[in-house]
Amino acid sequence: METNQTVPADTYRERSSRRRRKGVALFFVLLWLALIAGGVYGTKWYSDRIQQQVSANLERQTASQIAAMQKDYESRIAELEADFQGQMAQLDGQVQTLNELLTFAKDNADTKTDNSNKLYTQLAEVKKQLNELKKSLDVLK
Fold this sequence. Notes:
Blueprint: H1 2-107, H2 113-140
Helix pairs in contact: 1-2
């Protein structure tokens, strides 16, 4: 019987050591899974953070470029408008001068009808240019 008593004790020890080994192995597997999951989570968090930073920088750069382009566009439009206004004022002055000359020519029209016709032709051309400039200015506005 002595052999019978040692057999169950050895069997019990083997079973408990197997359980311990299985428990330790299970612990290490769970530990590795937790480390891997933590690494995946950390990587995702870091990549999301970097993506947000890049997106914010890109948005800021785009906004500054748009503002610069808008400022340049507005200054060009203002410059063109000022040029057109100047040209229109100049043409208006020429029209007034031609009107005065026509009035004077009408008063002295007895022998100078050729000069009057030339003045009317010039006046028509100046009015045509003035209308074209007004149309261009309206398009810009």
